Task: inverse folding
């Protein structure tokens, strides 16, 4: 991913990521990003045409890192939906603002590197023996659980481990 960016664009993307992770999507503006870098906002446009392009790069990072986490889980426990769910949840909870940026809006497919979305989905699809409907149901369950957890929507006394186990069991894991 980073290979397709110039060194300065990588520096800008890293600063954007830091700002996003610290303060959330609302604080990620070209002005705050320029301030973070100690430059004037127009200088950013030499490397990214607009804020959307910066966000697309961050979504590409999310998908790349999610793919890496799922591939590692698959290597440790081939075919285990439980292992994939654990890796997915751990990654999302470790990067809640990046996760939200990348999953709470339409996916900017046209701006993503070719094959990246498929790479992120392949470990799950393999664990589901190619059953696309099961893979989508599993992803919807995991995404919903993670999103609710990130946004603090479960009661304080909710046993999330039990809910994950029950949901995974219902999906046949």
Result:
């Amino acid at each position: 991913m980073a290979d397709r960016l110039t060194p300065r664009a990588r520096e800008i993307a890293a600063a954007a990521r830091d700002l996003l992770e610290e303060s959330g999507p609302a604080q990620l503006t070209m002005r705050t990003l320029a301030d973070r870098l100690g430059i004037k906002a127009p200088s950013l446009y030499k490397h990214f045409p607009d804020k959307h392009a910066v966000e697309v790069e961050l979504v590409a990072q999310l998908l790349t890192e999610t793919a890496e986490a799922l591939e590692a889980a698959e290597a440790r426990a081939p075919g285990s939906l439980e292992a994939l769910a654990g890796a997915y949840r751990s990654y999302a909870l470790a990067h809640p603002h990046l996760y939200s940026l990348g999953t709470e809006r339409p996916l900017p497919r046209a701006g993503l590197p070719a094959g990246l979305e498929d790479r992120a989905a392949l470990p799950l699809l393999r664990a589901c023996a190619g059953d696309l409907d099961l893979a989508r149901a599993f992803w919807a369950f995991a995404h919903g659980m993670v999103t609710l957890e990130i946004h603090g929507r479960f009661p304080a006394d909710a046993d999330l481990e039990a809910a994950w186990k029950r949901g995974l069991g219902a999906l046949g894991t």
About this structure: The mean pLDDT is 95. Residues 67 and 122 are 8 Å apart (CA to CA). The two ends are 33 Å apart (CA to CA).
